[in-house]
Amino acid sequence: MSLSCEKKHQKLKRLLYVNTYISSELDFKKLLKIAMETVKDVMEAEASSLLVYDKENDELVFKVVLGEKSNIVEEKYRLKMGQGIAGWVAKTG
Prior knowledge:
The protein has 93 residues and is an alpha+beta fold. It has helices at 3-22, 28-43, 70-73, 84-92, and strands spanning 48-54, 59-66, 78-80. The longest helix has 20 residues, at 3-22. The chain is globular.
């Protein structure tokens, strides 16, 4: 198997692992973190984050943050709808 095929194969195995984990994990926060770690690895990114919409306050909340600033950002910072790239995407769809 070529290096490129091997790399794709490893990425696919990671995604299948997440799929299996989804059906067995009851801790939603832990499940989100595992899914984001897998996405980060598959995309070969240095960092990743998952923002969740807080309907009551009309804001986005950083629920999972992976990377250098994770301990600073997670669940402490919020974005108003329309603020930054993520807020703009959420507002405009």
